[in-house]
Amino acid sequence: MQMERRSARRVLYDRVLRGLLYFSAFLTCALLVVLIGYIFYRGLPNVTWELLSTEPSVLRDVIGILPNIINTLALIFGTLLIVLPLGVGAAIYLNEYARSRRMVEIIEFATETLTGIPSILFGLVGMLFFCQVLGWGSSIRAGILTLVIMILPTIVRTTQESLKTVPASYREAALGLGSGKWRMVRTVVIPSSIDGIVTGCILSIGRIVGESAALLFTAGSASILVGNLSDLLGNSGGSLTVALYMYSMERGKIEVGFAIAAILMVLTLLINLAAKWLGKKLKK
Amino acid sequence: MTTNTPQAAQANSPLVKKRGLRELLERGMNVLFFLCGLVAVAFVLFITVYLIISGLPAIQEIGLKDFLFGTKWASTAKEPEFGILPFILTSVYGTAGAMFFGVPIGFLTAVFLAKLAHPRVAAVIRTAVDLLAGIPSVVYGLIGMTVLVPAIRVAFGLSSGATLFAAMIVLAVMILPSIISVSETALKAVPKEYEEASLALGATEIETYFRVSVPAASSGIAAAVVLGIGRAIGEAMAIMMVAGNVPNMPSLFKSVRFLTTAIASEMSYASYGSLQRNALFSIALVLFLFIMLINVLLNTLLKRKKNK
């Protein structure tokens, strides 16, 4: 029987590593729970209706983040409006139209490179080009176009992945019935991959909501309510993340920072849930 | 006149006209999608060219050697000095520190997720990892600033806790999700037969995972580490809030400035066309070169994994 027993060293090795594995996994989860708990504990009591529904005013001594909420929404809608056709189009080219292997490699290399570039560099180039060369100054539209460059790879990748899951037989059936390529793409390929495109949108919304470095120098940090759409796009406007940074770093209003952090966490939770739910639906 | 030839008559018939139109549409869509595909390439070229054009003038004026290896940054002094060695070293040390804390925990969590965890437990942890990845960097910065920085000040008896050490911890947490998910994918791709063979030869479960599965997935795990390095070097806002932002040569318990925060902290007030401002673009160029190097490394690692 002694032959079968493992040496003490092996038992120890086994126990120690097993313990470390459990400990690391526990630490990762505990980290999240503590982070979320702390943000809600410090932030939620400060989330009041007044904060959500007013603009900041020195005269009346109120702080409101309504302009920042509107700015964030404008950034999300504006960016998606431009990046969706571009990104889906690029993915369709890569998956359906491209004939040369070389071209596909070049484009995929470009999207991978874009994924790796830090957001502060996007912000810098956006500031140089949109704000200065085009003379737009800090404005939401400069922020939108900078985000388009940043988000493009996300949309291309998720769309491409879902295009790959559309069975070849669908395409053959469409072509066999005499449809042209564009008609096949429009009526068969895009509708079958719509779930993936929506997932891409949700992931992009998550990135836009969380983005700060690229926006600070392009969209600026103003918190003013404006009357119409062209003023909104043409003027400087800080997103929620930029407002968080400004209130907690520059103005020492930590409690406002935590209130915004709590709102951002709720948004992150919702976006994650939506992406998970869609992902499950996609698999079916 | 040629209109009477049968071909011309055919070309005028509605059916053929429609076919001609359709062909035109097909060609048009083909070109349109091709252009969409080229947009990403255009963006990359645009960013590269722009960073090089705006980054070179200051380097020329300051001198490459003085710029890269100068140890003093005093951009607003009467006799300004533009040495970015403190920023480069801070970024390198800060990233190394983040790896030191983040990689072991991320790697072990990945092994747990891929091999040991019950599917339901794994699903919960995976959700947690996704959420960690989704938390905006300013939120990490805020917590670092209000919890970690005071804690470090008290624990080590410093006058200020906003130090390189604080930045390392924040970065370690921020890179955790990328390291976990990429290593997990690599570990999951290890063929079952390898593990079964090892188990059949009498190795324990844990021995099999660490001596068979991990070596088999090594290039994927290396890719995870490189991806983490890229994330850490590129992060700006969170460390802006915890690192104290003073251009010191790096030391664990000193306030420091990273390459990214050096750009961010002076950009808002550097006057247009000044050497100070141009030097900030040169820092961006240096950062960009670092990132491209990391990207190339990452791509070769991922390719190697595919070829195996």
UniProtKB/TrEMBL annotation, chain A:
As for membrane topology, the entry says: Multi-pass membrane protein
Do you know which InterPro entries this protein is assigned to?
MetI-like, MetI-like_sf, Phosphate_PstA
* Subcellular localization: Cell membrane
What keywords sit in the KW lines? Cell membrane, Membrane, Transmembrane, Transmembrane helix, Transport
What is any Pfam family matched here?
A: BPD_transp_1
Where are the bilayer-spanning segments? 20-41, 69-94, 106-130, 136-156, 254-275
- Domain ABC transmembrane type-1, by residue range, is 69-275
What GO terms fall under cellular component here? plasma membrane
Q: Which GO terms describe its biological process?
A: phosphate ion transmembrane transport
**GO MF annotations in UniProt:** phosphate transmembrane transporter activity
Question: What's this protein's family per the entry?
Answer: Belongs to the binding-protein-dependent transport system permease family. CysTW subfamily.
NCBIfam families per record: 3a0107s02c (TIGR00974)
Query: Which protein, by its recorded name, is this?
Result: Phosphate transport system permease protein PstA
Q: Which organism is it from?
A: Lawsonibacter faecis
Q: What is the lineage of its organism?
A: Bacteria, Bacillati, Bacillota, Clostridia, Eubacteriales
Q: By which gene is this protein encoded?
A: pstA
UniProtKB/TrEMBL annotation, chain B:
Record's signal peptide:
none
- Supply the CDD domains for this chain: TM_PBP2
Instruction: Supply the InterPro entries for this chain.
Output: MetI-like, MetI-like_sf, Phosphate_PstC, Phosphate_Transport_Permease
Q: Give any GO molecular function from the UniProt entry.
A: phosphate transmembrane transporter activity
Q: Which residues cross the membrane?
A: 31-53, 92-117, 129-156, 162-182, 221-243, 279-302
* Domain called ABC transmembrane type-1: residue spans: 88-298
According to its record, what are the GO cellular component terms?
A: plasma membrane
Q: Name one GO biological process term.
A: phosphate ion transport
What membrane topology does the annotation report for this chain? Answer: Multi-pass membrane protein
A Pfam family matched in the record: BPD_transp_1
Q: Which UniProt keywords apply?
A: Cell membrane, Membrane, Phosphate transport, Transmembrane, Transmembrane helix, Transport
Q: Where in the cell is it found?
A: Cell membrane
Q: Which PROSITE patterns match?
A: ABC_TM1 (PS50928)
Please give the NCBIfam families that the UniProt record associates with this protein.
Answer: phosphate_pstC (TIGR02138)
The protein's role, per its UniProt record:
Part of the binding-protein-dependent transport system for phosphate; probably responsible for the translocation of the substrate across the membrane.
State the family it belongs to: Belongs to the binding-protein-dependent transport system permease family. CysTW subfamily.
- Which protein are we looking at? Phosphate transport system permease protein
Q: In the UniProt record, what gene is named as encoding this protein?
A: pstC
